[in-house]
Amino acid sequence: MNLKSMLLLASSLVLQSTIPVLANNNFSLFANKPQSAPAFLPVEDAFVFSQLQQGENLNVFWQITDGYYLYKNKLRVTINGNEHTIDGLPAGKDYHDEYFGDVEIFQYELMLSVPVADVAPASEITIHYQGCAVAGLCYPPMTKTFISQ
Asked: Distance (Å, rounded) from C-alpha 123 to C-alpha 126?
């Protein structure tokens, strides 16, 4: 075997032994850096939810992490299982969503106030919502249920 054949064989063996290692590290032969899938937050971290009943209103808040959004048309309130109109909901931002088409969304934060003056004490109030990550993950619909005071 001549020197040229030995060098060709040696370089072939080195290349074959490195490809599986590079593939396991999400390395692309066509890019200068490792490739990785986006990491998505748990839904509770993407949409930090809180509520506070103050007198005749149940105030509901979402702190929405950058890169995530809530759908305006997926926000609903039910009281004892009956739909309740949400008055005073702010305008959302127009957005083309790959799952639901043209929609309005909320980013960064959202607050809504649910009047509970006419609600009997110990009524069940449920907030329904759904959101997605801009990077392409859509979370399932979520609910939070409270008992009025």
From this structure: 10
